[in-house]
Amino acid sequence: MRYSVLRACLVLLGIVQWAGCSRPPAEPVRPPFRVRVVLQEPVGRALSADVEALEKRLQGQFGLDASRVVVEAPRDRRGALRRLGEDGIELVIALGVPLGRQARAEAMLHPESAFISQVGPPREPNLAVLNFQRDGAAYLAGVAAALAGGSRVGVVSDAGETPSSSLVSSFRRGCRSRVVAARIEVVTGPDGVRELARRGVRVAFYTGERLLPEILAAAETSGLDLIVSGSERPETTPDVVLATIEIDLVEALVRITRDVLDGTFGGREYRFDLGSGVVDLKLEPRFVSMAGRDAVEALEEARAAVNAGMVEVEVLGL
Fold first, then answer.
1. Domain containing 89 — which CATH number?
2. Are residues 114 and 188 in the same domain?
3. DSSP letters of 141-209?
């Protein structure tokens, strides 16, 4: 009897040991995937809002550890990016041209991290470059200007700056797709805005990246309406903007982050055009009230033509 009990205990012990050995090993706890968005002071209001929205989407959609790093002085750019690479940050997003240039060098030194820059070309397999192609949207801006302003429209650039030739060319083509003999007058600065108004121009395309207060003030006092190519603007903006070429920076960065997470990321240029849903011409209610619903339908037809490749636009990107 004693031996039977002992044998039963040994069998039971063997079963328990076998069950324990056959149990699959516990998966190691993975540290959170880290994303750092690097910015250079001063950070504009629109860019700051974009980065905040990006952090929330990356945290909510993918559960990532996403936050910003703000560089206060130009001399600190290299050190800030290098520390992120040395810390093994999985994804570093460098926004702005100066930081983008430095990110190219750091990508070569830290191949285990993925980098996103706004400055190309992407020479390293862990460096992606953003390329926002605004020319299709500029073509739509030309269509909108002709619909709202008629046969005489303007182009305004900042004083001392040369507007992008591809943007102006695409804008001109859009205008002349509606009014073949459209007259397009190119000026600079607030004085140019006032001069356009004196010549009877009612609508102009402003090519600056930031909508300057002095441009807005001149447009308001002169009665000139603007279609603008950049979404950065003062907090108080007079009601002179008909439409804006907008870039959904958050959506573009979320798409690239998804590639990093699923292993399809590579050193290449990520191009976003009018058909991507990242670059678009956003109409303000003022445009609809001025040009009418038929004009909105005409713009949608033009958009479809651009996306179908039926319209030639110059593509240089940004």
1. 3.40.50.2300
2. no
3. HHHHHHHHHTTEEEEEE-TT-PPPHHHHHHHHHHHHHH-TT-EEEEEEHHHHHHHHHHTT--EEEE--S
Domain stops at, among 71, 102, 132: 132
Residue 170 contacts by C-beta under 8 Å, 6 or more apart in sequence?
A: 135, 136, 138, 139, 142, 313, 314
Q: Number of folded domains in the chain?
A: 2
Express each pLDDT in 185-228 by its tens digit.
Answer: 999 999 999 999 999 999 999 998 888 899 999 999 999 999 99
d(CA 234, CA 211) in angstroms, rounded, equals: 7
Phi, psi (5° rounding) for residue 63?
Answer: 70, 30
Regarding beta strands 34-40 and 91-94, do their DSSP bridges make them parallel or antiparallel, or are they unpaired?
parallel
Distances in Å between the Cα of 284 and the Cα atoms of 52, 126, 240 are 24, 39, 10
Q: Are 227 and 240 in contact (CB under 8 A)?
A: no
Q: What is the CA radius of gyration of the chain?
A: 27
Segments forming the whole domain that contains residue 185: 135-246+277-307
The pTM (predicted TM-score) of the whole model is 0.85
Tokens matching residue 1? 């009897």
Contact 121, 269 (CB under 8 A): yes
